[in-house]
Amino acid sequence: MNYICSKCNTKIDVSTRKAKCDCGGLWKLDFKAPKFDLSLVDKSTWNIFRYRAFMPLEGEFWRDISLGEGLTPVIQFDEDVLLKMDYFMPTLSFKDRGAAVLIAHCKAIGVDSVVQDSSGNAGNSVAAYCGKAGIECEIFIPEGTTPKKIDMIKSHGAKVNVVPGGRDHCADVCRKKVDDEGKYYANHVYNPFFYEGTKTYIYEVYEQHGRIPENIFVPLGNGTLFIGVIKALEEFLDSGIINRMPNVIAVQSEYCDPFAQAVENKSRYPAKVTPKPTMAEGIAIGVPMRGEEILEYIYKYNIKVITAPENRILETRQALAAKGIYCEHTTAATYAAYLKYCELYGKTSDSLIPMCGAGLKSDH
Ligand SMILES: Cc1ncc(COP(=O)(O)O)c(C=O)c1O
Ligand SMILES: [Zn+2]
What we know:
six-stranded mixed β-sheet; binds zinc ion; binds pyridoxal-5'-phosphate; alpha/beta; globular; Rossmann fold
């Protein structure tokens, strides 16, 4: 199995320790999943690896790595909204989908030590799966990250470095370590195996719900769920499961919105923004590394990008909690953006909204 460079098309075996191509381009997988068909799903495996027929897995390493991630319920929240409860996960966020596949890959190629930067949840997932796999792990997180996420990461045995400054700077510090010390970068944005996990979000919706909803809301920071969703929907188009792209709506933070601004300016590049502190810490990404790739999808499929109103995140979180849904602020932001979308465009029935992170992970 090979990676292909997204810039110069160089091919390299996926066992490479290089985080990206020498030309600076990020890797893509040279892999095309077979046509999606429910008969190929292994119904006796109760985790995301039931979809392994559509993943580029190497060997059986996933069996020892899985923590029972995935198969989160889809609930009918009200007459218009389906919630996919992705905080029902081993580390309480959707990132477990990607981390399980990424760490299975690390195990398969014999990596024994990794570094990773994160706003909290991805680091938490990578730390947990490294713990399960017996891989040494060091996580870089920006200062201001909720202490509960830091405690969880430490509890899995990972070393935690809290980096002063914002999320983008934190990534720079971690990548310097990768460059200087040749560490393996088990990163959710760079490593293409991560998306092979996040695409199961859509597989599950189809298997559980029997069809794909018309309006699909997705938070968009670095785009790990977004890219997984688009990949899976493209596979479904290819397999004839759907005959057109549903209406995908990407949600950014009002205080950090490089994609929303790019679309406004019809640009192929994420806008240069100066992020302001936001409660939606999970999507506060000023410099998304797969920005051009994401914008290509946005224009190709006419995807709308909207921003979550910062002043409504707390009240939305409370309103959801009052109905039994206890999510973290970034996730409440996605729902607040859905409400804003309805105000702008009218009642939006048949909407799917991911509940990406659990309320217990953030402060009140
Ligand atoms: C709760 C939550 N929602 C959404 C996201 C957004 O994911 P991405 O940055 O991959 O777009 C994150 C990322 O950390 C998150 O933690
Ligand atoms: Zn290249």
